[in-house]
Design brief:
heterodimer; A: alpha/beta; Helicase, Ruva Protein, domain 3; two-stranded antiparallel ribbon; 43% helix; 13% strand; B: 240 residues; alpha+beta; OB fold (Dihydrolipoamide Acetyltransferase, E2P); de novo design (two linked rop proteins); five-stranded mixed barrel; 38% helix
Chain lengths: 201, 240
């Protein structure tokens, strides 16, 4: 469906591959970019390539980092024995805002979705298990989203973590189910974290 | 469209993220077949829909009819999701059911029988987690689609004994001289006859064994053959 001259169509196609951007939005953004001054576009392009070149994943927790370790893992004052497992790095931002959590994180880079064929192999699950003993982790808090995919992931991890003999907890169901963690306000999220329940037998 | 607003009950088969906070929900409705609809703002934690539009939810809906996508205006729960999502086996079994139904149902083609089967099966899955809950549903699903497997006589020559193979392409069992497809044990054949012959509850009570495993493997293959695609839920949890 090459409706426009090629460079415009290539731009629309590329934008359309971004998450949450449908064909109509892609078209709107493309035509917006064609209208703005060349400097603005150059700055955007520079920001994209810079971020991609300089930002990487934390070698320990898969958070966004600009060094070997992310700022949280590099912070000596954080409690290494408690690890909060989240789906995406942006969930860390939400939990940090609550000021309730002093441990470290582990980012799965997604959630299990049996209907989409996304299983534990596609996520940073092995990497989580590999951290338990070396880091002396005693509690794993499962902070995946309170929706079906997040629950599958949490229950799967709870089952697989059983043999490690650590305390396994799940954030309290005070969070409205169906919503994404990143939209939860800090008070609700803080309370959910405080009221986490035990999943370990 | 003269009357774009309608009411129906439905099971949520799956959901897709749409934009920042919306979701597309794929529904099997009682009277309007499979419907795709937009649920606006559903991913915001203060959404009026709450948890009611997650996969496996059973809901009463008020909807606006659209050209391709309908719009969910109101949703209230019929059955609570809690027993399904509080146990990994219940949940993965439930997802295996909706995946099969999603592949089977046709857009906007009323299938009240399929809807009732799914609701019944989800209620079963919420209560029990035997090894045959999902395979039995697959066999029932195939039977209701008009592709009930032949289990009584060889599909090629009509011999009744001994039946030693099951061939999904042939749609049933085969005797020793006509055999093709996968081999079939007498015990597995007995269980398959139980499921399709009105003794479902007896079959669902069976504990996991090589026999139930074999019945499940035949069911998966038969359904995958009918749908002409792999079942993702099955593939994912087979290995665990
Ligand atoms: Zn880190
Ligand atoms: Zn024969």
């Amino acid at each position: 469906m090459a409706a426009y001259t090629t460079p415009v169509q290539v731009l629309i196609d590329e934008l359309g591959r971004l998450p949450g951007i449908g064909p109509k939005s892609a078209q709107r953004i493309a035509f917006h970019l064609l209208k703005v001054p060349a400097d603005d576009v150059a700055r955007l392009a520079h920001a994209l390539t810079e971020a991609k070149a300089k930002v990487r994943f934390c070698a320990r927790c898969w958070n966004i980092a600009d060094d070997e370790l992310c700022p949280i893992c590099a912070d000596e004052r954080r409690d290494p024995t408690t690890v909060c497992v989240v789906e995406e790095a942006r969930d860390i931002v939400a939990i940090e805002r609550t000021g309730e959590f002093r441990g470290r994180y582990h980012v799965l880079l997604g959630a299990m979705s049996p209907l989409e064929g996304i299983g534990p192999e596609q996520l940073k699950v092995k990497e989580l298990f590999a951290r338990i003993e070396p880091e002396g982790i005693t509690e794993v808090i499962l902070c995946t989203n309170p929706n079906t995919e997040g629950e599958v992931t949490a229950m799967y991890l709870a089952r697989m973590l059983q043999p490690f003999g650590v305390r396994i907890t799940r954030i309290a169901s005070g969070l409205p189910v169906g919503g994404d963690l990143e939209y939860a306000d800090e008070l609700t999220l803080g309370r959910a974290l405080e009221g986490r329940r035990d999943l370990s037998a | 469209m003269t009357n774009p607003l309608y009411r129906d009950t439905a099971v949520v088969l799956r959901t897709y993220k749409l934009g920042e906070a919306d979701r597309i929900v794929v529904l099997l409705t009682e009277h309007h077949g499979k419907v795709r609809a937009v649920a606006k703002g559903v991913r915001k934690t203060m959404s009026k829909f709450g948890a009611r539009l997650e996969p496996l939810s059973h809901v009463r809906l008020l909807m606006y009819q659209g050209r391709e996508l309908d719009i969910v205006s109101q949703a209230e729960s019929v059955d609570t999701l809690a027993p399904l999502v509080s146990d990994l086996d219940h949940l993965t079994n439930g997802l295996a059911l909706v995946e099969a139904v999603d592949q089977m149902a046709l857009d906007r083609e009323p299938a009240p029988h399929l809807y009732r089967m799914l609701v019944g099966a989800l209620r079963t899955v919420a209560e029990r987690s035997g090894p045959l809950v999902v395979p039995a549903f697959y066999w029932k699903l195939l039977a209701s689609e008009g592709v009930r497997p032949e289990l009584d006589e060889c599909v090629r020559c009509g011999a009744e004994d001994p039946l030693v193979a099951f061939d999904v392409a042939e749609g049933g069992v085969l005797c020793r001289s006509c055999r093709s497809g996968a081999s079939l044990s007498p015990d597995a054949l007995a269980v398959m006859r139980m499921i399709l012959g009105g003794r479902l509850n007896e079959a669902l009570d069976l504990p996991a064994s090589p026999i139930t495993h074999e019945v499940a493997a035949h069911a998966n293959r038969a359904l995958e053959h009918h749908l002409e695609r792999r079942l993702r839920t099955v593939a994912m949890f087979e290995s665990h």
